[in-house]
Structures are given as C-alpha cells and as structure tokens.
Amino acid sequence: MKILNNDKQATQTVMFAGDIHGNVKHAQWVFDTAVQNECTHIISCGDFGYWVHLPRGEKFVNSVAELAQETNIKFLWVDGNHENHDILRNLVEKHGDLEPIDTPNKWVQWIPRGCRFIIGDTTFMGYGGAYSVDWKQRVEGESWWRGELINPYHIDGLSDDPVDILVTHEAPLGKEISYKDDIPVSVSQRALVSELVNKVQPSVLMCGHHHVRESWNIGITEVNVLGRDTMGHESVMVYDV
Questions:
Q1: DSSP characters for 182-203?
Q2: Residue 145: which residues within 8 A CB-CB, separation 6 or more?
Q3: Per-residue pLDDT averaged across 114-126, rounded?
Q4: Cα Rg for the chain, rounded, in angstroms?
Q5: Staple 85 to which of 115, 145, 146, 192, CB 3.0 to 4.6 Å?
C-alpha cells in the first residue's frame, strides 16, 4: 500500500474538496484555503475536471499541478462521472490500479477505483464513478463516457480489509439528498456505494456529486457529502490524520 506522507511536516492534514468541475478560479480558492489550514494534502471527491483531450482541460490540470508544487500540497482525486474515462482506462492498463497515478506528475495524482494508500497512519481507499443525469445532452467520447458507471462486479472483487477513510464521488444510501434520488439508475449507483461501505467499514466517507452539503451516519461510518465549486466553504472539509 502506497504511503503518501509529506516528509517536511510531522502532522498530516487533509482537505477534502467537492466537485471542482475544471474551474481554475475555484481550484485557486481551494489551495488558498488549504494553505490557511496548513494542509499537506488535498483530495478531490470526483468531477475534478480531467478533460485533457481538450486544450482548456489540459491547461486546467497543469494549473492545478503548478498550484500544488508552489504550495507543497499534494493533490489527489477520484474520478467523477464527468472525466475522460477512456484516458483513465488507458492509464490503468499501463500502470495498474494499486497506486495513485501521475496526472500529469507527482503533484496531481488520480486514485484508481479500489486503490488503497496511507497518509500519516490513516488508511484510505478511493472509488470514483457515478451516473450522468444529462448524458443524452452530451456527446459520447467528447463530453460523456460509458466508463463513468460503478461496476458491481468490480466491487465484488475487492478485498474486504477495512479502511479508515473512503473517498467516493457518489453518495451511499441513507438519506434523500437531491433530485437525482428520483432517478432509478442514480439510486442503484448509490446502492453500490453502500455495498462498498458495508464491505470496508470506513470510519469516514467523503463524497460529492449531488451539489449539496449533507452529513449523516451509517453504523460506524460518518458520511459527508461536499458541495460544488460555487459553494465556498460548504465544498471543503479539513481532517487531521
């Protein structure tokens, strides 16, 4: 399991961020807020904005890498539904899914689905994916990809060793949180996240996707749904690990 500690600081402080959506201005605000909170890591809970097939997407990712290096804050992200899943599939084929993958370098890394890693003495697992409610208004291969959905067979194949913190894009079941709960496919994706929670028994789950700020408990798990890039402090949460 990969250890991602920041050697220059004894205390490891992680900021979790909701959907950034390729918004450079919001990414700058996230880093500014992380600096104020003396964070060593930022973990984005999906819909980061990995559209490097477009010039504006590549520029955004490079800007985040520059911010990370300038502030000495490592940035990691799980995939949301709005990422280029064709490129992500190719990255897994090339590098495997056991460690975070450079996107574009060590300062910005994608956490493949089911990947486990350690910060401080805290174990993490990342698991991205969700359903795009607007997929019919998008163009396959340009602004929408079939690889967005969580695969139940992949969940079944994961180890049931427990983790401390689970980072997903989709939320588990347990509370109605947005209009997406009226869509059967979306609800079924939430059910798969619940299955994952039951499997790895995290103390904390961080997620995004629903563009709201909500919290509740499922057994031993504290669930936190973070807001999107227009929601300021409701889109981030800081944890010492």
A1: GSHHHHHHHHHHHHHHHHH--S
A2: 83, 84, 85, 86
A3: 97
A4: 16
A5: 145
CB 96 within 8 A of CB 110: no
Paired strand residues for 82:
none
52-111, pLDDT tens digit by residue? 999 999 999 999 999 999 999 999 999 999 999 999 999 999 999 999 999 999 999 999
Question: Which among 126, 100, 119, 115 is positioned nearest to 239, based on CA atoms?
Answer: 119
Structural tokens at position 26: 């919001």
Reported as half-sphere exposure (CB side, CA atoms, 13 A), residue 230 has a value of 3
Q: Tell me the pLDDT tens digit for each residue of 1-37.
A: 888 887 655 689 999 999 999 999 999 999 999 999 9
Domains, the chain, in order of start with CATH, read 2-240 (3.60.21.10)
H/E element, 63: helix 55-71
Which residue matches tokens 């809970």? 45
Return phi, psi of residue 161, to 5°. -60, 135
Q: Distance of CA 27 to CAs 21, 38, 121, Å?
A: 9, 16, 27
Are the C-beta atoms of residues 67 and 32 closer than 8 Å to each other?
A: no
| Pair of tokens at residue 73 | 């804050």
